[in-house]
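Hi V.,

You were right to ask for the full record rather than a summary. Here it is.
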Amino acid sequence: MWLFLPFLLVPLIEIALFIQVGGLIGLWPTLAIVVLTAIIGTALVRSQGMRVLSEARASFERLSDPTEPLAHGAMILFSGALLLTPGFFTDALGFALLVPAIRAAVYRWVRARIVVEGVSFGPGQRPGRPVDPEVIETEYHEIRPTHRPDGPSGWTRH
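Predicted structure:
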């Protein structure tokens, strides 16, 4: 039921805003603003998305917690969807999510309401431990050879 309200209210708000703004400035300037915000929003989403992607990549390389850069990336992606949706209300929400301080506040608010059960890393890896490019960490299992008294071991072909 709670998801029904946004699907009902957002289009009603957008229609009301289109009527009000269109009545004040006219049809063509209203449409121009909608198209211009989509173009500007796409450029901003692309630039901020690339920056957050590099932050996420760096956190993976450091083996640190990638939650915050991934959350920022998700919010930027959602922002892009809002900016491509025609309307003034969705554009305002989309541009708001492009402000790093607002994304950080949303992240803190959501993080305070989510409980993380556990985080695991690969064998021998610990958070914050520097990765030596000369060391290849792996696991192995010893396989004992089975001897066949009736023929070759199977390692060579005749």
